[in-house]
């Protein structure tokens, strides 16, 4: 018998191993996304319906005055474009978490979590992968929107990238946090109703907040407190090469809080452990 | 002048070396889901280069035990060690030495065989080039090299299982856990998988923990752990467990062991 019984000294993990793991997870998530054409199509159709139909109909109803970051009068379509970009990311973040619930039921999550790398890192990779997928969707949307005369400065396509990464991470980690509390897939429809729609409608995505304030001060405060508003504003300003510092601070802080919460919830000795066996117990 | 007598150490029977670290050590492990106790003071070892069958009916606690060993659940009480590395204290070192085949299929059906293997390799930090070489080699070993590029969805149940076992071996673990791997397979596929895993034990010295409720998968030379309603009722070489139960075969031994325990009511 070979001498395989001696105990090895812990050797830890090298940076290269971390990077291999990260790229592997992002690569797999990208492949899965490309295989799910319906998901890609529906991710694009949703904001385009808002842009082509809703915005066209509302153009006459809502007048938009000149507000930062815009320097001229703008069409309503131009106003809601950043909100729709954030909406893509909101849906994607929730959908990634949907896939985590699915993965957990189907056991795919297990293959991820039995990787020897630290669990927090694995979940962070998963978040980055989900964000990368949302970037594909957002840029595809921007391309189509360009033909619809939504033409931010060309440098805006680059300056918006860091904002999109941060907002993608925030919404993804929010989704992950929620997914840790969902036991079964069926409950997800409730999350759609109770998370996605309220977040979207009580934000600056569809109407500028000063208009909201005229209508209802309470709704205004709610919108101001909504992290999604700040994701939208961060994206809106970044698309025009500017930084909205308050939004940046809120989004960054929320990202950190949600991410820590999600990693905490997926810690084996806490969240998942209480919930009993996933799938068939045998 | 006769030739010297054979050196005794060489042919010594494989006595367990007291200094040897078991591939897997389960030490006083209990686990409860709320008020329901799934595992009660479970202890046993799996030695390197041995085949240990974990025998139990559905609901005996096998999957819970697997979830604890793989760190999907936190340990509530007791200790799980993999080659001496405590799964709670140094999970990275422990999981590195562990390969798992879960009971539910855990492959990406829309990805190819190779893509599935490469993803798993990445999760273990194995570089792309090395991973590609190992994947090709393992696919060859399980006779699926020609299907490398096809989608997993198109494989048969037995082929998927063989792929999952190959995947579990990609990072060259020294302990392999399999949770009822032959469920739902036909006779031929079952036999293939069992012989494939037994080969790993004899040829590569891998310690195997094989959870099952099928008596005919266990051989007399195997180590046996009988788990029933969360408790270990018997453990040791199968032949000894059978004799001590006063039975002729595993089937009878299992019925005798669990029959005595099955009576009292309670939340199992």
UniProtKB/TrEMBL annotation, chain A:
The chain crosses the membrane at residues 48-67, 79-102, 123-148, 160-178, 190-210, 243-266. Residues 38-269 form the ABC transmembrane type-2 domain. InterPro entries: ABC2_TM, ABC2_TM_bact-type, ABC_2_transport, Alc_ABC_transptr_permease, T7SS_ABC-Transporter. Pfam families: ABC2_membrane (PF01061). PROSITE patterns: ABC_TM2. It is found in: Cell inner membrane; Membrane. One of its GO terms (molecular function) is ABC-type transporter activity. GO terms for cellular component: ATP-binding cassette (ABC) transporter complex. This is Transport permease protein. It comes from Bradyrhizobium nanningense.
Automatic annotation (TrEMBL), chain B:
It holds the Pfam family ABC_tran. SMART domains: AAA. Keywords: ATP-binding, Nodulation, Nucleotide-binding, Transport. Residues 1-20 are annotated as: Disordered. The keyword Nuclease does not apply. InterPro entries: AAA+_ATPase (IPR003593), ABC_transporter-like_ATP-bd (IPR003439), ABC_transporter-like_CS (IPR017871), ABC_transporter_ATP-binding (IPR050763), ABC_transprt_ATP-bd_su_PQQ (IPR022467), P-loop_NTPase (IPR027417). One of its GO terms (molecular function) is ATP hydrolysis activity. Residues 24-254 form the ABC transporter domain. Involved in beta-(1-->2)glucan export. Transmembrane domains (TMD) form a pore in the inner membrane and the ATP-binding domain (NBD) is responsible for energy generation. PANTHER family: ABC TRANSPORTER ATP-BINDING PROTEIN, ABC TRANSPORTER ATP-BINDING PROTEIN NATA. Belongs to the ABC transporter superfamily. This is ABC transporter ATP-binding protein. It comes from Bradyrhizobium nanningense.
């Amino acid at each position: 018998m070979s001498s395989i019984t001696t105990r090895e000294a812990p050797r830890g993990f090298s940076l290269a191993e971390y990077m291999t793991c990260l790229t592997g997870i992002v690569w797999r998530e990208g492949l899965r996304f490309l295989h799910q054409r319906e998901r890609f199509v529906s991710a694009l159709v949703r904001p385009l319906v808002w842009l082509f139909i809703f915005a066209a109909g509302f153009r006459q109803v809502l007048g938009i005055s000149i507000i930062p970051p815009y320097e001229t009068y703008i069409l309503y379509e131009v106003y809601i474009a950043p909100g729709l970009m954030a909406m893509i990311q909101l849906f994607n973040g929730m959908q990634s978490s949907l896939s985590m619930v699915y993965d957990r039921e189907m056991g795919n999550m297990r293959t991820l979590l039995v990787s020897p790398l630290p669990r927090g890192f694995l979940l962070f990779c998963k978040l980055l992968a989900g964000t990368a997928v949302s970037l594909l969707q957002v840029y595809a949307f921007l391309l189509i929107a360009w033909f619809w005369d939504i033409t931010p400065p060309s440098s805006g396509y680059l300056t918006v990238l860091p904002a999109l990464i941060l907002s993608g991470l925030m919404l993804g980690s929010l989704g992950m946090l929620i997914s840790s509390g969902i036991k079964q897939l069926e409950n997800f429809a409730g999350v759609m109703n109770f998370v996605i729609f309220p977040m979207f409608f009580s934000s600056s995505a569809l109407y500028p907040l000063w208009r909201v304030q005229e209508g209802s001060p309470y709704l205004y405060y709610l919108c101001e407190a909504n992290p999604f508003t700040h994701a939208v504003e961060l994206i809106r300003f970044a698309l025009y090469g500017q930084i909205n510092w308050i939004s940046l601070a809120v989004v960054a802080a929320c990202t950190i809080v949600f991410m820590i919460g999600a990693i905490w919830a997926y810690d084996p000795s806490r969240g998942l452990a209480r919930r009993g066996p996933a799938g068939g117990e045998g | 002048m006769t030739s010297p007598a054979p050196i005794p150490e060489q042919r010594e029977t494989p006595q367990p070396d007291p200094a040897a670290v078991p591939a897997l050590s389960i030490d006083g492990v209990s686990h409860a889901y709320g008020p329901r106790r799934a595992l009660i003071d479970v202890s046993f070892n799996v030695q390197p280069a041995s085949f240990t069958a974990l025998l139990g009916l559905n609901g005996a606690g096998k999957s819970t035990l697997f979830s604890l060993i793989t760190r999907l659940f936190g340990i509530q009480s007791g200790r799980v060690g993999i080659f001496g590395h405590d799964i709670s204290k140094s999970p990275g070192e422990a999981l590195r030495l562990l390969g798992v085949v879960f009971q539910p299929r855990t492959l990406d059906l829309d990805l190819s065989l190779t893509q599935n293997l490469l993803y798993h390799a990445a999760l273990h930090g194995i570089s792309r080039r090395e991973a590609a070489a190992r994947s090709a080699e393992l696919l060859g070993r399980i006779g699926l090299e020609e299907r490398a590029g096809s989608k997993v969805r198109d494989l048969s149940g037995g082929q998927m299982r063989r792929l999952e076992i190959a995947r579990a071996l990609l990072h060259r673990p020294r302990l392999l856990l399999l949770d009822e791997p032959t469920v739902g397979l036909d006779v031929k596929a079952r036999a293939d998988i069992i012989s494939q895993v037994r080969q790993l034990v004899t040829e590569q010295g891998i310690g195997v923990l094989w959870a099952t409720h099928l008596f005919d998968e266990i051989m007399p030379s195997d180590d046996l752990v009988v788990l029933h309603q969360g408790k270990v009722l018997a453990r040791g070489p199968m032949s000894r467990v059978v004799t001590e139960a006063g039975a002729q075969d595993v089937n009878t031994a299992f019925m005798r062991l669990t029959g005595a325990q099955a009576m009292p009511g309670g939340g199992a």
